[in-house]
Amino acid sequence: MTYIVGLTGGIGSGKSAASAWFEQQNIVVVDADVVAREVVEIGQPTLVEIQRQFGKWVLEPSGALNRTALREYIFQYPEARKQLEAITHPAIRQSIIQQLTQAQSPYVILVSPLLFETKQHLMCQRSLLIDVPIALQLDRASQRDGQSRAQIERIIATQMSRKDKQQLADDIVDNSADLAQLYQQLQPLHQTYLRQSQLLDN
Ligand code: ATP
After folding, report:
1. Are 6 and 108 a contacting pair, CB within 8 Å?
2. Is residue 17 a known part of a binding site?
3. Ligand 1 contact via 13 beta carbon (within 6 Å)
4. Going from the N-terminus, what domains does the chain have, and what CATH number goes with each?
5. Which pLDDT tens digit goes with each residue over 29-40?
6. Is the C-beta atom of 113 inside 6 A of ligand 1?
7. Per-residue pLDDT tens over the stretch 116-136
8. Contact, 9 vs 113, CB < 8 A?
């Protein structure tokens, strides 16, 4: 059985930075955001179903998903978000499970910004929250993407609150200092996950 650690945190919290460190320790990382993009690529049944339910306007002339149009639409109509997620979440889940079970490493990391919101934590043995204050999320995400602070605040508002995530997570890492301090906190957790995955194997 594969020991799965779900890694989460809000936008700009440092999930990619933490995942990259785990990859350096030869731990396979499956990224739910990457899978979410894969399942709506041209030719995928999920994209066909989105078009069937929402209409042709969701597609670019090339046939690819018009992400900007769809994002704006679901921001405006919360019911449409639920309708879209009812199509995408099962497909994402199935593909994640496939990739996780094929992975060849002592344990695997599932990195997902919406781990708890989408209940993906239920397929994990353990969850790890990369935690930073909202002010830092705004600073780091706006510096990285050139997105306005208002846009990032809007995204934060759609994500579960920091407090709720802190309550749900098994492990919490504080990423408000520098990267060296992030890695220092990840090291003992890596040892714990190695030990626990071995127990699961035996
Ligand atoms: P998203 O959900 O938006 O993909 P994320 O949680 O993956 O974000 P990262 O991309 O890892 O976050 O980090 C956001 C930005 O902050 C990046 O530019 C990253 O280099 C920087 N960063 C992350 N951790 C630290 C840190 N401890 N010190 C300084 N900069 C950091």
Report:
1. no
2. yes
3. yes
4. 1-27+107-197 (3.40.50.300), 33-104 (3.40.50.300)
5. 999 999 999 999
6. yes
7. 998 999 999 999 999 999 999
8. yes
